[in-house]
Design a protein that fits this description.
The protein is α+β, with helices and mostly antiparallel strands and 364 residues long. It is 33% helix and 13% strand. It contains 13 helices and ten strands. The strands form two sheets. Strands 2-1-10-9-8-7-6-5 form an eight-stranded antiparallel β-sheet, with helices on both faces. A hairpin with a 4-residue loop joins strand 6 and strand 7. The longest helix is centred in the N-terminal third of the chain and has 17 residues.
Length: 364
């Protein structure tokens, strides 16, 4: 009996000794996050909302500039809503990949098989566009044929800048074309589709491609470089390329679970989504040094094989997410001034310990 008890106690001690204490967030990361208040002040960003996650733990918060010139009447917290701008695109790309899994759409089938090409000047060229080409920005289209929030945009003529599949050419217009196909297939508007496929599964109750009534009190206003309050901004129609509104905790759940872990996708679809499709030379006629290590996957960018990322820029709203699959770390931030990307170089270098080309790629 005593021998049996001794063995049980010894086994318990050995088992407990096999569990190493949980690792802590890297000091470099903590230092980078602690540097954010000073950077927010230096670049005069009224509000910066962020979320960092890793297997070692998460850290998140809201930083407000103390400059009294930025008068924001509503309370600011982690539930405050920002324009996500082009961070709209990865969410839409994820929806498309779920449809690929379900057999509702084919990556290499013409989008014109699902919707019309009425707005295109060159309809023969338009019929060559596929979901893969759209999601990897190889359409040859301009970003927009007209201001996408303007009255004339829905009927404006779309002209190609480059031949289809000839180069990287960042285009919201391509995403809007594919959006029409998705809505036709699903028989539902974009936001209804997104709510079912993304927002509800990933617990994103205040994320939307359309204006929600609650935004009246929780959507922050945007400020231009001169420090002028330009208001919350409203978009006349849901657009897969730029009208998403969200906050850092909700969007981080999508990045972590949807993009990093591939939740809701087959292994094949998740791998395909994360595979380099094109070298992302941002300006086809003007190569730059910062282009050399940037590629585009299906819905987001990559820096070599190390990082995935996407940025958002709606003028007075700037945002960015960065994902390091090898360490399962991710970072998301939203800001509400045109200076919101000015902090990228010093912050990302401290956060990652590397010189990433993202600031030059985005801003120059």
């Amino acid at each position: 009996m005593r021998k049996t008890l001794f063995i049980i106690l010894l086994s318990a001690l050995l088992i407990s000794g096999c569990h190493a204490p949980k690792a802590e967030i890297h000091p470099r990361v903590l230092s980078a996050l602690d540097s954010l208040p000073a950077l927010v002040s230096e670049y005069g960003i009224p509000v910066l909302q962020y979320y960092y996650f890793s297997p070692e733990g998460d850290r998140h918060g809201v930083i407000c500039c103390q400059d009294a010139a930025f008068d924001i009447p509503q309370a600011i917290d982690e539930q405050s809503i920002f324009q996500a701008a082009s961070l709209s695109k990865p969410v839409f790309a994820y929806i498309v990949m779920k449809m690929v899994d379900s057999g509702e759409i084919e990556l290499d089938r013409p989008v014109a098989d699902y919707t019309d090409v009425d707005r295109f000047a060159d309809k023969e060229m338009a019929r060559r566009l596929t979901p893969r080409i759209v999601l990897s920005h190889q359409t040859g289209l301009p970003n927009w044929a007209a201001g996408p929030s303007s009255d004339e945009w829905p009927t404006s003529t779309i002209a190609f800048k480059y031949p289809v599949d000839s180069c990287f050419a960042y285009s919201g217009e391509g995403y809007a074309f594919l959006q029409r196909a998705v809505e036709a297939i699903k028989g539902a508007p974009l936001n209804e589709i997104a709510r079912k496929e993304v927002f509800e599964p990933f617990d994103m109750p205040t994320t939307s491609y359309e204006w929600l009534p609650v935004y009246d009190s929780i959507a922050v206003p945007g400020f231009n470089r001169d420090g002028e309050n330009r208001g919350q901004g409203r978009h006349p129609r849901a657009n897969s390329a730029y009208t998403l509104r969200t906050n850092a905790p909700e969007y981080a759940r999508f990045v972590r679970r949807g993009l990093l872990e591939g939740e809701g996708l087959s292994e094949a679809a998740h791998k395909e989504m994360s595979t380099h499709q094109v070298h992302a030379q941002r300006y086809a006629d003007a190569p730059r040094a910062c282009d050399s290590t940037v590629f585009w996957c299906l819905g987001f960018g990559a820096v070599n094989e190390d990082y995935y990322w996407h940025w958002g820029d709606n003028g007075n709203f700037k945002a960015l997410w960065l994902l390091h699959p090898a360490t399962k770390e991710g970072f998301v931030y939203f800001s509400n001034r045109a200076t919101g990307h000015d902090l990228l170089d010093p912050f990302l270098e401290e956060l990652t310990g590397e010189e990433l080309p993202l600031s030059d790629w985005i801003r120059n």
